[in-house]
Amino acid sequence: GQNILRKSKKDTRYYQPQYNSSCEKIAWAENKFGKYFIKVKDLKTGKTSLIYKREHKLEQITDYSYPLIKWHPSGIVLGFMIEKKGEIYFITYNFDNKELKEIEMTALEKVNSFDYSHDGMNLVIAGFNNGQSDIFIFNILANTLVNITQDNADDYTPLYVNQSKQIIFGSKRK
């Protein structure tokens, strides 16, 4: 294998590493004192690109729960969830046209994880609504969010399986 980073920086935390479907690119987050960056390295050329940056360097307890990063199944779109001014946003970056698209997820208070469907048309999301942890399906084109586990159990880490015909997830059900 090859080193993704030439050298790591002191006081910087690296997390959320994600390879695209062809394993030609890897994305990750870097956080230094609360300011985070999303970077992508092209493993064929060795070039690293800054895709997104957010927040300010502050001497305070750092929240490493964002950004959450996932590659679209096509391998040319990177999706990520961020929190901005208390609201959740789903953002995509298209490597073909270098375009960022942002969708506010108004019904969610927090997102813990998400996964793309095999066709890239939907997301399955573990998130909080009204203080309750549930699993949601988000249709990207229609911009609709459906709660599929509306109950008292805590649900987390959903994944599409079987060509997105099924969803598996962790839960604290009894």
Would you write up a description of this structure?
The relative contact order is 0.11. The N and C termini lie far apart (43 Å). The chain is globular. The chain has a four-stranded antiparallel beta sheet with strand order 1-2-3-4, with no helix packed on it. A four-stranded antiparallel beta sheet has the order 5-6-7-8, with no helix packed on it. By secondary structure, it is mainly beta. It has strands spanning 13-19, 25-32, 35-42, 48-54, 68-71, 77-84, 87-94, 99-104, 110-116, 122-129, 132-139, 144-147, 155-161, 166-171. Helix content is 0%, strand content 55%. The mean pLDDT is 92. Strand 10 and strand 11 form a beta hairpin. It contains no helices and 14 strands.
Helix-strand blueprint:
Layout (H helix, E strand, L loop, with lengths): L12 E7 L5 E8 L2 E8 L5 E7 L13 E4 L5 E8 L2 E8 L4 E6 L5 E7 L5 E8 L2 E8 L4 E4 L7 E7 L4 E6 L3
Antiparallel strand pairs: 1-2, 2-3, 3-4, 5-6, 6-7, 7-8, 9-10, 10-11, 11-12, 13-14
Task: Give a summary of the structure in a few sentences.
With about 170 residues, the protein is mostly beta strands.
- Sketch the major β-sheet: 4 strands, antiparallel
**Residue runs with pLDDT of under 50 for 5 or more positions:** none
**Spatial ordering of strands, largest sheet:** 1-2-3-4
- List the secondary-structure elements in sequence, H or E: EEEEEEEEEEEEEE
CA(first)-CA(last) distance: 43 Å
Number of separate strands: 14
Key traits:
174 residues; four-stranded antiparallel sheet; mainly beta; 14 strands
